[in-house]
Design goal:
7-stranded antiparallel beta sheet; 4-stranded antiparallel beta sheet; globular; alpha+beta
Length: 466
Amino acid sequence: MSQHRLRIRLSLREELGFLPAFLPVSIVDAHGQVLTTGAVNTRRFTEIHYDRTDAPIFVRLTLPNGTAEMQPLQTRDRVWRDEVTFSLGDDVTTSHWMAWSAMRVNMKRHGGALLNQPGMKDAWFQLWEKTPDARAWRQIPMDAQLIDLPRSQDAIQLELRDSHNPRALVVRLDSDTPQIVSLPTLETRVLVTSLRTLSGVVTPRVVVGGYSPNAEAIMEFLLAGRLSSVESMLDPGSKLAHQLLRDKLEDPIAATAAAYYLLRKRDWDRLPSSWLDNLVNWNEGIPDAQLIRATSQIERGMSMDRAASLAVETLSRFLDNGMPLFAEASTLLSDLLALAEKAESPLDPQTAKMLRMMLASSRPAGLSFGFAGKAPDKPMTAHKAFERRQEVRSRQLLAEATRQVNVLTHFETVGSFPALRNDSSRRQLRMAAETIRLSANVLLSTPQRAVSGSAAKTLFLQDVLE
């Protein structure tokens, strides 16, 4: 076998940021065995060297949403290809307006209407921001920040302009408890759609996009536990690693995402303390950086007393800078909060209580940090969060039972069901099905609750569509 060179390029219908977008690629054989890996980007060809074999060989592009694009390295005439281009556009499951977020909906696709989902006619959205003096959160008019509202039968997208202050979205879907979702200060896209689970249950979802393609790709892979894909993008010496770790002023959110990965790997050589100090000092609007720096210092090694003191120092003023951007922060917050409880000078009780409630009611929106509550400074209490999770679980089980009974009580199904051959058995089953339906209606049709905050500054989903 001899080494051969392959040139690969990634082509997108529309550019997604100031920096090129990177995605992992690999050369695989017909059995799926990986021969070599690398990363391809949108600005220039990437060269990968590999060993040719007699068996068919393919180049595979891995997407953050769990899918992959593959191309053979031999033509039908068995001529080896020296150059390959992956073109991503409307014909695949990507979406330029949501960057690389795993949740994607084609706005031109026809399907079930979003408002047909139970409770969605009462859905609403609010925009909150931290006051310039960092003392409190305040609700601001959505219209002042809203750029556009593209929509289809399947989804609605809120496009928000950039902001100078930390901000968050408060959203209530499906007559559910309001959810607080962290937003970056950059121009942001919020997608509201529905997700069908493996059991067939359809639930409304909100997903934040616009962090930048590289940040979202890294965090999507981390969320799915696919560290090998991130390693292909950020292996030592890669162009993306160099750009993110050196040019963090260009895309500090992507640099923060890379730092999350390096922290998981405990790669201290590429995560030096001085670099983290700069990331923290230059980006107050990214509270995640403070958590990463503190956790990195503790995991490098220090006494328990010093670690507890550092945890208190990090968390004492943490909420002044808003909320973490990524759901990955929950684990770091939990660890630091546990250490802070062992400090000789404990954390302020009110701050500790607020952080505990945020973690207890954690409800991330895709990659984004989030929790249940009425406002960014009013998370749901721990016991209510537990009761709410139990209630949601009961509703899901009952909805699934209702769906199955609906199938069984269909006339043709009942007529062919071997255990239901007499009228009495059929009547009993139909009565049981009706009882379940009535019980489900009680739980699934929660009455409309009062809108927390200012109703005048609230955007109602029904108004958007009308």
